[in-house]
Task: inverse folding
């Protein structure tokens, strides 16, 4: 049944070490779904997709060195992926040299391919489950595009698996609380735009992502404009222990807008909530973002 695949994909076994992110398997599976959508019968030879997978890990994984060889081999254990070599079925292991030399090629497991072919609604359901569980909403469109997924024209019906996906009502309530606490102003740049008396271009940003046990609480949230929310989730902007804004040294931009909207923010204190009773960002959440998201 479709629900079984959604539950299985939502329960991928991942490497864990404290609070560190390890979205390697979700990113490989999103990429494999994108390739299946484009060419259902194609295999993914490791040597041909290695650069694509490395790009996904570099852009959306944690800010530490990692190799696409690990998910390519280890995803087999979750029952959604298979690997063959020039010698026959089975993965040669997670060593890059062996994957390259053996002609290793991966593809979605046969039962999953059959289920996807039989039900067009399953692919977007799986893709959205992976995106919702492992990444903030501000990055979903970028990740889907880089993974080769076309979710605009696909059947957007989702399988309701309440225990996996966040209640949208909680997100709406958090946004209302955060914008009110911050006086409808971006905590980074002070933008306070409104249309017809209602805030526009302002969002509630989790510091520690909801997908990684970040609570819907003011101590884990900032009111940010759409631009700075995106840059914060992408790791261009961060927070130091004193809640001053940090800017990634990897960021490039020579124009006046890049200078005023990004570079000149470095060292600026983050604006706190207007309400004295509202909690500022907790140090533990700022530290998580600094180690797991910020591209320092």
Result:
């Amino acid at each position: 049944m479709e629900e079984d695949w959604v539950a299985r994909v939502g329960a991928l076994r991942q490497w864990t070490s404290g609070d560190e992110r390890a979205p390697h398997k979700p990113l490989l599976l999103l990429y494999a779904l994108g390739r299946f959508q484009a060419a259902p019968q194609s295999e993914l030879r490791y040597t041909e997709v290695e650069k694509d997978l490395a790009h996904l890990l570099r852009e959306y994984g944690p800010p530490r060195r990692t190799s696409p060889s690990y998910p390519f081999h280890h995803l087999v254990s979750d029952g959604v992926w298979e690997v063959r070599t020039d010698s026959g079925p089975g993965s040669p292991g997670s060593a890059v040299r062996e994957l390259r030399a053996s002609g290793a090629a991966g593809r979605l497991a046969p039962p999953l391919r059959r289920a996807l072919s039989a039900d067009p609604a399953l692919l977007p359901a799986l893709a959205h489950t992976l995106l919702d569980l492992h990444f903030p909403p501000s990055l979903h469109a970028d990740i889907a595009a880089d993974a080769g997924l076309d979710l605009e024209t696909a059947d957007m019906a989702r399988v309701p698996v309440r225990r996996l996906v966040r209640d949208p009502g909680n997100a709406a309530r958090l946004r209302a609380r955060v914008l009110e606490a911050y006086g409808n102003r971006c905590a980074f740049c002070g933008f306070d735009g409104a249309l017809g008396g209602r805030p526009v271009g302002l969002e509630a940003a989790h510091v520690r992502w909801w997908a990684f046990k970040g609570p819907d609480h003011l101590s884990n949230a900032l009111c940010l404009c759409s631009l700075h929310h995106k840059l914060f989730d992408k790791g261009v902007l961060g927070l130091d222990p004193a809640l001053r804004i940090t800017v990634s040294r990897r960021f490039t931009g020579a124009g006046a807008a890049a200078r005023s909207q990004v570079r000149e923010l470095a060292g600026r204190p983050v604006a706190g909530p207007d309400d004295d009773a509202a909690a500022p960002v907790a140090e533990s959440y700022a530290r998580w973002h600094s180690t797991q998201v910020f591209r320092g």
User: Anything to note?
Assistant: Residues 2-146 form one domain. The longest helix spans residues 24-38. The beta strands are 44-45, 81-85, 88-89, 105-108, 194-195, 198-199, 202-206, 221-225, 237-239, 245-247. The CA atoms of residues 19 and 288 lie 7 Å apart.
